[in-house]
Amino acid sequence: MRKHDKKSIRKILETFRNPRHREPRKRILILCEGQTEVKYIKNFKSRRVNIKVISQRAKFRNPDGMIKEMLRKIKDDELYVRSGIDEAWCIYDIDTEPEDNKILQNITNARKNYINVAYSNPCFELWFLIHFEKCSTHLQCTEILNRLKNYLPNYQKGKDIYNQISDKTTTAIQNAQYLEHIQQQNLSQNKYKNANPYTTVYQLTSRLLEVI
């Protein structure tokens, strides 16, 4: 073997030994509205991807504030979201937003800044419920919680139930896609308030399963 070949091999080996020369792990920053979402998402762990989950409910109680906070964190953490190297996600409910125009404005602003949105109408617990059943009629949050307790009698908001539902994730994704199909007309006309029940949390979940 020639001398320069040995040097090349030695340089490659040193790169693997020295963490400073390794390619940085992909970073996924997820900003959540509350602890229920945080505890669910924290179950997605990976050695290949740095998944960071933060709750902002105490600081920002609306989607507009969450998106502004995410923009600040993208800048502070130097996330490369524009190139797709890193990813940013906001998880929130739209039941508190009074108008479709405001919902559209938030979603448009997020996409313009390369922020992904996983929203639910009316609330995040809909994602839990469709692990067990296919929904199609208009639902209130209280009704969702009551129906969820038919399958998880001890369920409480903020409780980590991942281990109780993870084996039904494929079913939940399929049921979410079904909701997307039946709500297509409302969504295409930006009638977000009418698109109930509906959740895009399945998109985030599918993405996390893909990268971990």
How many domains in all? Answer: 1
Nearest-angstrom radius of gyration?
Answer: 20 Å
Largest sheet: 5 strands, mixed
- Poorly predicted runs are none
Overall shape: globular
Proportion of residues in helical segments: 40-55%
Order of the strands making up the biggest sheet:
2-1-3-4-5
Task: Give an overview in words.
It is built from 10 helices and 5 strands, in the order αβαβαβαβαααααβα. The chain has helices at residues 3-17, 35-41, 63-76, 100-112, 125-129, 141-148, 162-165, 169-182, 184-188, 201-211, and strands spanning 26-32, 49-55, 87-93, 116-121, 198-199. The protein has a 5-stranded mixed sheet, with helices on both faces. The radius of gyration is 20 Å and the shape is globular. It starts with a helix and ends with a helix.
Short summary:
The chain is α/β, with parallel strands linked by helices and 212 residues long. It contains ten helices and five strands.
Would you spell out the secondary-structure blueprint of this structure?
Blueprint lengths: L2 H15 L8 E7 L2 H7 L7 E7 L7 H14 L10 E7 L6 H13 L3 E6 L3 H5 L11 H8 L13 H4 L3 H14 L1 H5 L9 E2 L1 H11 L1
Parallel strand pairs: 1-2, 1-3, 3-4
Antiparallel strand pairs: 4-5
Helix pairs in contact: 8-10
Q: Which tags fit this structure?
A:
single chain, alpha/beta, 5 strands
